[in-house]
Amino acid sequence: MNTFELLGAGLLTAFQWGNLLYALIGVTLGTAVGVLPGIGPALTVALLLPVTYRLDPAGSLIMFAGIYYGGMYGGSTTSILLNTPGESASIVTALEGNKMARKGRGGPALATAAIGSFIAGLVATLGLAFIAPSVVKFALSFGPSEYFALMLLAFMTVSAAFGESTLRGLTALFIGLALGLIGIDQLTGQTRLAMNTPNLFDGISVTTLAVALFAIGETIAVVASRTAMDDRIQAVKGSVWMSREDWARSWKSWLRGTAIGFPIGAMPAGGADVASFLSYSAEKQFSKHPEEFGQGAIEGVAGPEAANNASAAGTLVPLLTLGLPTTATAAIMLAGFQQFGLQPGPLLFVTNAPLVWGLIASLLVANLMLLVLNLPLIGLWVRLLMIPRPWLYAGILIFATLGTIGASASTFVVFGIPTSFELGLLLLFGLLGYLLRRFGYPIAPVVVGLILGPMAERSLRQALQIGQGDPTVLVDSWISVTLIGLAIAAVVVPMILRARGKGKMLAAMAGDED
Amino acid sequence: MRHYLLAALAAGSLLLAAPAFAADYTIMAPAAPGGGWDQTARTMQAALQDEGISSNVQVINVPGAGGTIGLAQFVNQSSGNPEALIVGGYVMVGAILTNASPVTLDQVTPIARLTGEYEAIVVPAGSDIQDMAGLVAKLKEDPGAVSWGGGSAGGTDHITAGLVAKAAGVDPTKVNYIAFSGGGEALAAILGNQVTVGISGYGEFAEQVKAGTLRVIGISSDEPVEGIDAPTFKDAGIDVSIQNWRMVAAAPDISAEQKAAITADIEKMVKSESWQKAVADKGWADTYLAGDAFDAQLKKDTAATAGILKEIGLVK
């Protein structure tokens, strides 16, 4: 059978009532966990594994895939409306999305995120079906030196994209880089900056830091300032729906986001967060309205949201073709496959074709289901903003703390009372988030530093170790050379432009951010 | 919202653990949900409940630092509690040493080894290394030129690489071991020809070997394993045998009767149909070992691991 027939047969599997129900349960659960800060799709799938033990393989895998896609979706809702990213891939969405929501444009922001996610999910799932083998080949050609070049590019473009003051942006980035050094060094097994606290040996969790800086920090800021309480947020201004201009500005961003997200998701050390950072900086470069960045530019929501969903589909490429899980959720889905005696690998497409195509087809169905579920709900979601702020922030605090405690049962004893260590970290970083806000430092670069710093360090050291200390391995392949070239261009080109007296335009381009 | 209730329950169960009758167990998985130890704990939970050995089994996750955070919490909070169990494994032995953990496995009551996995050394199909002898020759020529891709530093993969080099007469400190954040990332590096050889649990490589993209050149078992077309390290002249095992242990300071009761429950579970089926489905090897034989094996593994970790330079 050719690919079309297989996909058709898969769609027939996916459209069975039972499987449609599993997909529906999956996307609903996924959206719910995506909304809760601190609890991600990985934890949900892990907790559901034993429950699904008695279900049939196709149904439960379809449900897991629904949770995964749904989680990517749900995260954007809280990012946009409450400035509280539910997981690391929606951090970037909070930057522009929340600005839009505060100006009464929460509806269009949610709509562009939902439609962008749908389109990205659709294109990327079709990519998974038709070009998975060649994508995987490209992803495998990324070794440590190529990753390092990619990280360089990300640092250069991302740090330039944040904040109006380069110095403040870099300061925030370096706080993140320093936090990223905490814990056991993966290459030598030695602990660094952990102050002999075993709870710090695994480093600072990205989710804890993100939830703390955004949600807790903002809550403290609101409490601390009388005027912020009085500052009424405009819930809805104009239409809840996207205008013609919104469409015109969004569609290219959706496609660019997909093009960035899908291959990066397929890379073993890629991931949705990296994809969303790169997409954000790309949108800022390409936008016709760069001055709006930091004030609520719709491209800054459309691109990264498409990128994180496309990368979720990208993750399934190495999982299904090589049996290679590249994210925590994928690792647990792999465990789900094994539970049913299926071993994902190069032979899975041959030995279990109906199941694989059923899964791919149900991804398409789940994606459509998410769009249908979410679009009508937008009107309801934006009403969240009309809740009096003290209640709203009290609710955010409860969800953030419960989510954090739920994710780790690790306790330590203070004055005879067992206390959650993660909760302590959450409050501490919440305070940091408040101080950063108070003194005008951007928040996002801290999280970016924590995510990218360790990846960059590891890739650099792995590359040098493989090359036995010879630095030329870093520019050994055309991929590295291209990426490093782009990174240099990202720094040099603005300098040349400035030297030619176009400084004014650039100054305008460097919009500000929270 | 079900997951959410479960998560809240897991968090609360530590504080509220006041089980109603003796056959209840709370199993701590000292790792994040989804990993090997977590799966072991949850498979135990299902088997114990399905077979009616225990009516109420809870699993709690306390992740971090190779299981040593969970272990410390277990030792401090469960002392004398006959209902508390912890899942652990060989990785913990290494982590206790490299992290200079304040608590060790001497402080818990080991019950039984449950499952195990052998380490395999693989090369890409196109590699010029054909067998262990070829690898040893390359190592002797220039140890640094052979890059080994495996899991994190100080883990089973790293320890095995050190032991193999040492047994081949090569200085273990010269081993060029590239630590990746997990078997998956290491596998990608091997497939992408970024490293010379790969070393990890055989399960990580099994599908690639079947598809012919990787070649196994040696396996760390004592006897050849059915279905794996490669000699043991011992048969290839490298005197190394190692097993990445998983175990279950009970709380410190429980009575001999309590220990016997738990051991009996675990034995019943291991022999049950639902456990055997789950083990087969997940591709684990049932290497059940209990009593004095397990205690002796644990001591031997701990001593050998401490020795090699010092020699690789990870433990001072």
TrEMBL record, chain A:
Transmembrane segments: 20-49, 109-132, 138-158, 165-184, 204-224, 316-335, 355-378, 390-407, 413-432, 439-457, 477-497
Positions of the DUF112 domain: 20-447
Key words, A-Z: Membrane, Transmembrane, Transmembrane helix
Name of the protein: Tripartite tricarboxylate transporter permease
Source organism: Tianweitania sediminis
Origin organism lineage: Bacteria, Pseudomonadati, Pseudomonadota, Alphaproteobacteria, Hyphomicrobiales
Automatic annotation (TrEMBL), chain B:
CDD domains on file: PBP2_Bug_TTT (cd07012)
Pfam families: TctC
UniProt signal peptide: 1-22
Sorted UniProt keywords: Signal
Family: Belongs to the UPF0065 (bug) family.
Name of the protein in question: Tripartite tricarboxylate transporter substrate binding protein
